[in-house]
Amino acid sequence: MVERIEVLIRTQKNLLNSVSHELRSPLARLNVCLAMIRKHLPEEAVDACERMERDVARIDTLMGQLLTLSRLEAGLASGERENVNFTLLVQEVVADGNFEAQSLGKSVTLEASTPIVLEKADSSRCAVLVKT
After folding, report:
1. Of 34, 80, 92, 99, which sits 20 to 30 A from 27 (CA to CA)?
2. What is the pTM of this model?
């Protein structure tokens, strides 16, 4: 029974980590979309857009806190590390940048001949560094 409870707790922690990490990228894209929409809004609608931006920022902060908590509980913040595909993280940023650039008639691309892997890194911290 103790073994079963440990598996359930580990599964819950993994789910929390995955969900909080996966929600941050869409939230970042929502912020970009809101900023683009705001440029074309009439003055009376800007307040509503600002309110949405604040709400998205608050959700992003909460997701960041959940991700940090999940990492701490999983032991990754206390020295445990993993290999991180840095090229994939940069590709996500390039995709977001390209989305925004298209509204200006531009494009952003990445040409990577070989993947860059950071050994023994904290993937959540690498993602935060790349995406800010």
Report:
1. 80
2. 0.47
- The secondary structure of residue 106, as a DSSP letter, is -
Model confidence pLDDT, tens digit, residues 39-55 = 888 887 888 888 888 88
**β-strand partners of 87:** none
Same domain for 98 and 69: no
Q: What is the CA radius of gyration of the chain?
A: 18
Calpha distance 70→77 (Å, rounded): 10
Active site (catalytic) residues: 21
Q: Are 13 and 66 in contact (CB under 8 A)?
A: no
Domain that holds residue 129: 81-132
Q: Please name the helix (run of DSSP H) or strand (run of DSSP E) that holds residue 26, with its range, or none.
A: helix 2-38
CA distance 47 to 89: 33
